[in-house]
Amino acid sequence: MKVRFIFVIFCISTLFILFLTILKTDLGNNTKYLYNTNNTNENISSIIKFIIKPKCDINFIIWIVTSSANDAAYRTALRYAYPNEMLKSLNITRVFLLGKPKEESMWKYILKESQKYNDLLQGDFLENYKNLTLKHLMGLKWASSNCKANFLIKTDNDIVLDIFEILKLLQEKKIEENTMSGYILRNMKPIRISNNKWFATKEDFPGEIYPDFLSGWFYITNLKVAQLLINTSEKFKNFFWIDDVFISGILRQKCDIKLKELNSFYATDYRYLECCIRDKKKKLKCEFIAGPDGGKKELHIKFRKFSEYCQWNCYKRMKEQLVSKTCVVAYEEEMHVVNSKAYIYYV
Predict the structure, then answer these.
(1) Torsions phi, psi for 239 (to 5 deg)
(2) In this structure, are 169 and 111 located in the same domain?
(3) Of 102, 107, 153, 232, which is most buried with the most CB atoms under 10 A?
């Protein structure tokens, strides 16, 4: 009985110590990745320090891509889709924006990756979605301070692009200078549901409606605008962690930078892009230049091959041929046969 009692006390003590250790670790991590400059003289821009900083040549386009330090697979897929040699021939420089992984064992792999490809820009802050604003600003700061280019493109690494059609838009001067062009989100309200990933407290954002902002999936601007955004960020000691809202909404509004709508060029579902690829045999162009990959990394490569082919071999679609009108993407069907009866599940 006495032995059992001692064993129970030992287990409870061990669990209590473990709980305190986890709590201490979490609190420590929070202070590491959530910068709060209320009690310092630092502004947001000044706390962005580079760990890895690639060189930047004179280019037509600087392409910055938000990426997780731990997700080398996505960067590999993008490098296969648009190899650095191809981008160089198109006068484009692409860099991936990273934070610091929590696992120190990952650091050496990132260093090797950087030495091999010279396309990583890493900041001195932990990888966390609450640090997306720091990561985004880091890309703008590096580009505006180190590069000479006509345009800057920002994307997320899970967004598929038709870089050839984007080049045509820019070369034909269909994008206004000194604007931010992309998918405009209007009259969006902060999410106040606490268990939502994008929950914003009244302290985070006291207003009831966000200023108009661009989806961070993909937008086009130039280095002058990037520099304006960085200069304006220096007046802030706190940042709103939802980067799309803070940078293309709050900061942009402070700078009085206009938004240019490109909503019709965006596929909202990856299956639209797959429909475009299937129509290759009809030699029809895709009306979309950007869209999500649906978790299918191979879609980046397939869509690049399709769009490269269609540069010279495809025709513009008539209204009745638009993918948005002819491609059914409301659901995918999974058919299961049970006791000779077919059941269809919508996913």
Answers:
(1) -125, 150
(2) yes
(3) 153
272 shares a domain with 249: no
Mean pLDDT, rounded, for 337-345: 37
How far apart are alpha carbons 222 and 209 in whole angstroms? 27
CA atoms 177, 183, 189, 191: torsion sign: negative
User: Do the domain assignments include residue 7?
Assistant: no
Q: Are residues 234 and 306 in the same domain?
A: no
Which pLDDT score is estimated for 3?
A: 43
Nearest to 63 by CA among 154, 168, 156, 144: 154
Average pLDDT, the chain: 85
**Whole-angstrom distance, CA of residue 281 vs CA of residue 25:** 56
Q: Residues 256, 298: one domain?
A: no
Domain total of the chain: 2
| Nearest Cα residue to 70 out of 34, 30, 110 | 110
Whether 308 and 256 have beta carbons less than 8 Å apart is answered as: no
Which pLDDT score, from 0 to 100, does residue 22 have?
A: 34
Q: When comparing pLDDT for 63 and 36, which is higher? A: 63
Whether pLDDT at 68 is above 60: yes
Q: Are residues 115 and 203 in the same domain?
A: yes
Strand partners, 123: 50
Beta pairing partners, 61:
92, 151
Give the length of the chain: 347
Q: Tell me which H or E stretch contains 61.
A: strand 58-66
| 29/47: higher pLDDT | 47
User: Which structural domain, as residue segments, surrounds residue 323?
Assistant: 267-344
Identify whether residues 326 and 182 lie together within a single domain.
Answer: no
Is the pLDDT higher at 271 or at 25? 271
Q: Could you tell me the CA-to-CA distances from 26 to 17, 29, 106, 177 in Å, in that order?
A: 14, 5, 20, 45
CATH number of the domain residue 70 falls in: 3.90.550
Does residue 184 contact residue 214 with C-beta atoms inside 8 Å? yes
User: Do 275 and 233 share a structural domain?
Assistant: no
